[in-house]
User: What shape does this take?
Amino acid sequence: MRAALTTPELETIHDRLRPVVPDVEWATFIDDVEAIHRLKAERDAVVLGHNYMTPEVFHGVADIVGDSLALAREAQHVEAGTIVLAGVHFMAETAKLLNPGKRVLLPDLRSGCSLAESITPDDVRALRAAHPGVPVVTYVNTSAAVKAESDVCCTSGNAVRVVESLGVEEVIMVPDRYLAQNVAARTGVRVITHPGACEVHERFTPLDIISLRAGHPGVTVLAHPECPPSVVAEADFSGSTADMQRFVEEAHPSRVALITECSMSDNIATGHPDIEFVRPCNLCPHMKRNTLGAIRHALETGQHEVTVDPDLVAPARRAIERMLALR
Ligand code: 13P
Ligand code: SF4
Assistant: This one.
């Protein structure tokens, strides 16, 4: 078992962060970065980090990073005894559902999500009762209790594929009304929705993109599908955070704007000094609770463990596994 980062390893992290983290700020991170690496080794833990983590978490301490779909897939294969989920509560629950033998820690229990909070199991039951026989597709940004009422889950990375796989003309798609409308536009499948929205993405407007294009000629605009359809319509491409990253790496636009959470651009920009990232971003306060200090505290104290009601495990897991079975 290794006790600490070596000096060259620490310098490699610093080099990666240099384009987005000033040296004076890096100096304030070193102690936590070193402690987290030592604690991960001592406590047999790994850190899974969502793409919206700040760069010092994303590049500095996370072992596995990705969008919601990638984190769910990777969580299944974690061998370490403890998973620290640097993300939000529903992601920690998903990891626990998919790898129940592991201890899953969320650094700050206040890391919620406006989508997950917008819907209850009763809401899903009411929609089913009002639309008998219509399948329920539930975004992973929900509690295990809501997933347990669902036929299949989806993420922003596979929502179109999941809906198309059902081979039906109509679905109940909850809780993000914008994601549902964007999927309806792409698939032609009618969607019955719920009035949920992401508090980060619903704030973008078509005018934001129009002004961006006027101020930054030639900019390629990528919008997350949690944005309203009027925003997605103004963009050049729409996809999950991992889809956005792939797009940037493959198309290599000289100037790009990611219409999503702020840290996304920073995390990709570190590897692409030749691309200009225009940053009309919004912050997710829930994701931002995963500071280095909070992650260190989670490893030191074993707080906060996320568990799932045993009665919900089988039905919630079934809906997630049905999604993961689709390639
Ligand atoms: P993805 O990373 O799956 O695109 O999700 C974005 C998001 O808002 C997660 O909370
Ligand atoms: Fe929820 Fe939006 Fe924050 Fe993601 S970015 S956790 S969808 S509030």
User: Anything to note?
Assistant: The chain has a mean pLDDT of 97. Residues 209 and 234 are 7 Å apart (CA to CA).
